[in-house]
Amino acid sequence: MQWFLRGLVLCLALAGGTPALAGGLLWRISAPDGALRGHLFGTVHLCDADCYPLDDAVREAFAEARVLALELDPANEHMAHALATAGLLPAGERLDRGLTPALAERLERAAIATGADPASLLRMRPWLASSILAVMAASKAGFQAERGIDLWLAGEARAREMPIIELETVERQIRALSAGGSRTHLAMLEQTVDLILDGRAQAFFGELRSAWARGDTERLLEMTAEGVAQEDIQPLLDELVLARNREMAERMAELLARQDRVFIAIGAAHLGGTPSVVSELRRRGFDVAPVP
């Protein structure tokens, strides 16, 4: 279980045999006096080999950096335990007891189709079960955490003995992943099951790839809500994306005020929406401009 889980629904993509484009995903951050403080890059948390090498502009900006800032360090050893603690049902409870018979049957078929263990899913809360299913479906389509941009950047940073700063805590991400209440969680679970059983996963991830490659962060957000009523998905988006945009921007502003040559890498969907991380940094006085 990895920290990105629900984030993959917002950010997942790969680069279809070409280098990952900078486009609207790489931004130069300057202080009010015009001094360059660092760069902001919109990533994907699952990829494949075709995502590499990254665009020249991205690699050049990263090569100049002294510090790497990520949502969370992929090597954070607290993740698995925290997810298990928050995402598993109490002893004696089962996920399928809270589902309609039709959804319970489809859930089992979706688990088998992706290679997930149905018995293990039944021990999970709906938000974790749908996230695990989405990860498994992505893996079958060739999108893996081991190829994630964040993981690659963290590995390169360690090889260079570059400090890695976390913008969030594991607990904060789990609180976001599990936001929205039971109605939202069941709607997302049904969306994921339908995506798998209707044979749309490959096309869905392919379209996410295209949106990321062209820097279309608004489309990434739109795709999150497809197949789910707006009133069901909005509580999750408010916490998972919009609230975290404000919080991460505040943390970035504090970091940029004391440190220059910072390379900030976060999920690409956080560069879209209102407020976005870009708009929040600008509101705090920074000049944030796209890199051609």
Describe what this molecule looks like in 3D.
With 292 residues, this protein is an alpha/beta fold. It has one domain (5-290). Helices cover 51% and strands 10% of the residues. It contains 13 helices and six strands. It has helices spanning 5-11, 56-63, 79-87, 101-114, 118-121, 126-140, 149-159, 170-177, 181-197, 201-213, 217-224, 230-258, 277-283; strands at 26-30, 36-43, 67-70, 164-166, 262-267, 287-290. Strands 4-3-5-2-1-6 form a six-stranded mixed sheet, sandwiched between helices. A hairpin with a 5-residue loop joins strand 1 (26-30) and strand 2. Helix 1 packs across helix 6 and helix 8 (170-177) packs antiparallel against helix 12 (230-258). The longest helix is centred in the last third of the chain and has 29 residues, at 230-258. 47% of the residues are buried.
Annotation keywords:
single chain; 292 residues; alpha/beta; 6-stranded mixed sheet; 13 helices; elongated; disordered N terminus
Mean pLDDT: 87
Strand order in the sheet with the most strands: 4-3-5-2-1-6
Q: Give the tally of β-strands.
A: 6
Q: Provide the gyration radius in Å.
A: 19 Å
Number of domains: 1
Q: How much helix, percentage-wise, in residues?
A: 40-55%
Q: Roughly what fraction of the amino acids lie in strands?
A: 5-15%
The main sheet comes to: 6 strands, mixed
| H/E series | HEEHEHHHHHEHHHHHEHE
What is the overall silhouette? elongated
Number of alpha- plus pi-helical segments: 13
Question: Which consecutive residue ranges, at least 5 long each, have pLDDT under 50?
Answer: 1-23
What would you call the structural class?
A: alpha/beta
Distance between the termini: 36 Å
